Structures are given as C-alpha cells and as structure tokens.
C-alpha cells in the first residue's frame, strides 16, 4: 500500500468540502417570490423582530447585509437589512418585515415577485 502524504489528503479534503459550501456570488442577486411577516418573536440573529423596521429574512446571506429589493409588479424599491433566516416555502427568496412590504406595495397582496441586489 502506498503512503499518501498529509498534504495531499488535506488538499483533497479542502477541495471536496469547498464545493459543498454556498457561493455568495450566487446569493448576491436574485429574483423570486417574497412574502411578509409581522411577528414579535426572536429572529435567527437573536434580535427581536420589529415589523416597523426595514428588515428581511434570507436563507444564506450574512446577518447585517443590506439588500435592495424591487417589486417587479410596480418597480418600487426598498433597502432592507438581513436579520433572519427563511423563507422556507419553495419559490420564495425573501420574507420582508411589514414596513418593508408596505414600502414596495405588497401588504394587501401578501406576496409579490421581487428581485434583490446586495448593496453592502
């Protein structure tokens, strides 16, 4: 049996696991469905959810990331801060706070088609 050096094993392990990590480049911009929520429970970041603040939930963007969200139906935009995880419904890319949803005109419909772009 041949002896394999530790550096080769380490390189192979890093290569294998790096392909499993989410690429932020893919999550930086996107389009899909959005919904809104107005709870007062704790968010995944540990802060209390405040429906009056411009925040949102995203599955993988870092907490604190600022995202420009555009309602594709009316062109209205809002900048939100990611502070929670979700949405957990297929086809949806963001869960917005009630204030953010109101800014882009989607409160009455409950959902909207949106595009988002990371700005910082």
TrEMBL record:
Q: What class of enzyme is it?
A: lyase
Name the keywords, alphabetized.
Cell wall biogenesis/degradation, Lyase, Signal
Residues in RlpA-like protein double-psi beta-barrel domain copies: 31-116
For this protein, what is the EC number? 4.2.2.-
Task: Report the record's Gene Ontology biological process terms.
Answer: cell wall organization; peptidoglycan metabolic process
Pfam families, per this entry?
A: DPBB_1
Which is an annotated GO molecular function term of this record? Answer: lytic endotransglycosylase activity
Tell me its family. Answer: Belongs to the RlpA family.
Q: What is this protein called?
A: Endolytic peptidoglycan transglycosylase RlpA
Q: Which organism is it from?
A: Rhizobium esperanzae
């Amino acid at each position: 049996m041949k002896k394999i050096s530790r550096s080769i094993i380490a390189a192979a392990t890093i290569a294998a696991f790096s392909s499993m990590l989410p690429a932020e480049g893919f999550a930086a911009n996107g389009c899909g469905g959005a919904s809104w929520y107005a709870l007062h429970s704790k968010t995944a970041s540990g802060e209390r959810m405040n429906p009056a603040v411009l925040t949102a939930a995203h599955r993988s963007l870092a907490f604190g990331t600022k995202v420009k969200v555009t309602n594709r139906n009316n062109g209205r935009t809002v900048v939100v801060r990611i502070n929670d995880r979700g949405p957990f419904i297929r086809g949806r890319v963001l869960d917005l706070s009630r204030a953010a949803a109101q800014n882009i005109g989607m409160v009455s419909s409950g959902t909207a088609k949106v595009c988002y772009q990371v700005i910082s």
